[in-house]
Amino acid sequence: MAGEPQADCLFCKIVAGEVPATVVRQTETTVAFRDINPQAPTHVLVIPKAHYPNAAALAAAEPRLAADLLREAGEVAAQEKVDAYRTVLNTGSGAGQTVFHVHAHVLAGRGLEWPPG
Ligand code: AMP
Ligand code: ZN
Fold first, then answer.
1. Is 116 among the domain residues?
2. For the chain, what is the domain count?
3. Residue 34's beta-bridge partner residues?
4. Among all ligands shown, which has an atom nearest to the Cα of 46?
5. Which residues form the domain of 21?
6. Ligand 1 cavity residues, CB under 6 Å
7. Among 1-5, 43-47, 58-62, 94-98, whose mean pLDDT is lowest?
8. Ligand approaching nearest to the C-alpha of 104
9. Where is this motif: Histidine triad motif (predicted)?
10. Residue 26 lies inside a defined structural domain of this protein
11. Catalytic pick among 43, 101, 103, 105
12. 68-90, pLDDT tens digit by residue?
């Protein structure tokens, strides 16, 4: 069923507490934790607790949960005391997606080039 935990999903395991993570925020519907391979001084991943493979699938199935994710990206930035940040949602391996449980990267604390690579 859509949104149900997937046995082979790393981020579902983080939600379940089966894989450790440095959690910085948590809500009823989301978890935010530090990226294990940070690409900026602030690099936090925000995920819904429910499993959806990417942002479009999440928004199609549960638009309010998609909004929770984006709001939490802002809350992470506020908590990290950064006023400028980039939110990245990779979709597909060709775009660099390696974990197929939707996650918003929140990147901040260094110059962020535009356009991004
Ligand atoms: P993406 O490449 O957009 O799918 O992003 C996946 C991100 O998850 C990468 O930036 C990884 O560094 C990060 N990552 C992988 N395993 C872990 C983990 N156990 N804890 C925290 N972040 C992780
Ligand atoms: Zn998952």
1. no
2. 1
3. 44
4. 1
5. 10-108
6. 10, 19, 21, 33, 35-37, 45, 90, 96-99
7. 1-5
8. 1
9. 101-105
10. yes
11. 103
12. 999 999 999 999 999 999 999 99
